[in-house]
Amino acid sequence: MATLKDISTLEDIKQMVNNFYDNVRKDDLLGPIFNEKLQDRWPEHLQKMYGFWQTILFDVRAYSGTPFPPHKQLPVDKTHFDRWIEIFNTTIDKQFEGPLTEEAKMRATNMAFMFNHKIEYFRNAENELRNSIKKP
């Protein structure tokens, strides 16, 4: 078996991101959500993700913004985030290995956990607010 190289260039990030989102788009659970949300804006999303991962892994300021708000209203829960991580790790492990590869998987896992936690928090807060308004 050939030895895989670590993520080390922008081209590696593009390969990682493109292959990951190709797999997401085909996934029965995640594909419909992403395809509905992004529709014909996939090229812009992929460009944003290249910058995001450049910033995360290479400490290059290629991304500015707040990644959580676009995800806040998506119809997702822990099952979706678990599947996202499964696809991410499987995809990346087929392409790369090394310290930055492990960093990418750790960062993705942490983001999925945080996004899921925040989405649940906001949904619970909104439900509590709705319930308190309904009470006489």
TrEMBL record:
CDD domains xref list: TrHb3_P
Domain of life: Bacteria
Keywords: Heme, Iron, Metal-binding, Transport
UniProt keyword annotation of Amino-acid biosynthesis present: no
One of the Pfam families matching this protein, by short name: Bac_globin
Family annotation (InterPro entries): Globin-like_sf, Globin/Proto, Hemoglobin_trunc
Full protein name: Hemoglobin
Source species of the chain: Flavobacterium cutihirudinis
